[in-house]
Amino acid sequence: MKIFFKIIFLSICISTIVGCSKEYEVPQDLVVNDFVWKGLNAYYLHQDLVPDLADTRFNSDAQLNNYLSSFADYNTLFSNLLISSDVKSTLVEDYNTITEPIARTAFTNGLEFGVIANPSNNDLVIGYVTHILPNSNASTKNIIRGEYFSAVDGVQLTKTDYQDLLINGLDNFTLQMANFDGTISTPNTKTVTLEKQAYTYPATFMEKVIPVDSDNVGYLMYQNDFSNNYINYLNNTLLNFNNQSVNKLILDFRYNIGTGGFAKNIAKIAAMISEQNADEILIKEQWNSKAQTWFLANQPDSLLTKFPKTINSNININSLNISDVYIILNGPNFEGSSATELLINSLKPHLNVHIIGNQTAGNNTGAITLYNSEDYDFPLKNETHTVALQPIVLSFLNKNDQTYENGFSPNINLCANEDVLDLGILGEDSDPILNSVLNYISTGNAVSNTNCNPNNFDYLFNSINTQRTLDKGVFIEQNLPNTN
């Protein structure tokens, strides 16, 4: 069981509800509503921007109860207490569904692909292969990145049926491959039969060392989340790179589905990338004014994450001693994710971080899980319901107090979509994205592709995008003593 960040404000009864006491019992029909309001009043990052969450909003328990009774249900109350732009804070109906991420699996044939509209017939579509999953059914077939297909089991793919045929249809099907010159799609004689199977994703998609002039560049294409499932494997990968004298690192997240994660895991990955002393600050936390004041007065060190030296008590972190890391962003249109942005911001004071992608979204907030208990932790939770809250409660800063609510500007801009006519081979310099990064490493010239989609293709679908979930930000795990 995770132990989440907890804090009790001893002054809440004085500053918020005049005359409340430990003897006060919340009416049974308002237990969840009361939990929602008090949890957000204490911790919500934007508490000072929500008038109904103000400490002076109610003068008594009776006034608060009247307010809470005015809402049809606790979900409506929760939504009304968030600022309008907040799409990350969530209410969990059943905290039993909050579990550790499991290793990524799927029922798939291993084909990852995109779909564009057929330029010569607006009703038809053309599929193109972006990559093949290692050790999948498709990896045993004669099909590679950059090939095209136009039909499934003899049925022409159209805008209305391609998802039914390719995703929601039969577990076994045969692709009709095609030639495509940018204008005309012509079926060829090649067919590929694929079968969906139970599949466990490898920890990394690709890892290799690429010599660039006098540099040994470690290239890591990573496709999974940033959970404990993969931390040990990543640590071993970085050790292999170290043993091969890697002095620069490319992290390719273009097909990565990981969005949030836990700050402690991002810290471990940062420590693998940059060798620092254990007293070096990696992450700072900025809570709402009430929480921040309490932390600074009572436990200021709990606001800091320093470079970890171990994965756990038995495993040391293998750190690369490098000066430059090049991060190819993940997410729709290469905008990155909250986990990627936290990694970038945290590393910036310690080494040169080069960003390849587009302007990032600015997901600089962190969240916790609150349970209805005196210390908002799990063991003492109210057993009469299963509601939990996952509000955003802090902003992340780095050692130099820099944050990123406006996102990051890239060193190299990428087009919104990869060029279906020029995909190249992943891990080779024929891949235009990797090639641009290798040239940047070699020459120092950051050259962006300004000729995006010259054929004006209508990009309709990408199988990776459908595997991504709403980015709720990064979660914090810390343990503080119960101050009640």
Largest sheet: 7 strands, antiparallel
Under CATH, the homologous superfamily of the largest domain reads: 2-enoyl-CoA Hydratase, Chain A, domain 1
Proportion of residues in extended strands: 25-35%
* Overall SS class: alpha+beta
Into which percent range does the helicity of residues fall? 10-25%
CATH level 1 class label of the largest domain: Alpha Beta
Task: Based on the coordinates given, report the CATH architecture of the largest domain.
Answer: Alpha-Beta Complex
H/I helix tally: 10
**Secondary structure: number of strands:** 26
Q: What's the overall average pLDDT, rounded?
A: 91
- Which residues form runs of ≥5 with pLDDT under 50? 1-22, 479-484
Shape, per Cα inertia axes? globular
Number of domains: 3
* CA-atom Rg in angstroms: 25 Å
**C-alpha end-to-end distance:** 22 Å
CATH fold name of the largest domain: 2-enoyl-CoA Hydratase, Chain A, domain 1
Describe it for me?
A hairpin with a 2-residue loop joins strand 5 and strand 6. The strands form six sheets. Strands 3, 4, 5, 6, 7, 8 and 25 form a seven-stranded antiparallel beta sheet that branches. With 484 residues, the protein is α+β, with helices and mostly antiparallel strands. It has three domains: 12-86, no CATH class; 105-200, Pdz3 Domain, CATH 2.30.42.10; 206-450 and 470-475, 2-enoyl-CoA Hydratase, Chain A, domain 1 (Alpha-Beta Complex), CATH 3.90.226.10. It has helices spanning 12-15, 31-43, 61-69, 74-80, 162-166, 228-243, 263-273, 289-298, 338-347, 432-443, and strands spanning 90-92, 105-108, 111-117, 125-132, 148-152, 155-156, 172-180, 185-195, 197-200, 206-212, 215-221, 248-252, 261-262, 281-287, 304-306, 310-312, 315-316, 324-328, 352-357, 365-367, 370-371, 388-390, 392-397, 412-413, 459-462, 474-475. It is 20% helix and 25% strand. The model is unreliable at 1-22 and 479-484 (pLDDT under 50). Helix 6 (228-243) runs parallel beside helix 7 and helix 7 (263-273) packs across helix 9 (338-347). It starts with 11 loop residues before the first helix and ends in a 9-residue tail after the last strand. The protein is built from ten helices and 26 strands. The radius of gyration is 25 Å and the shape is globular.
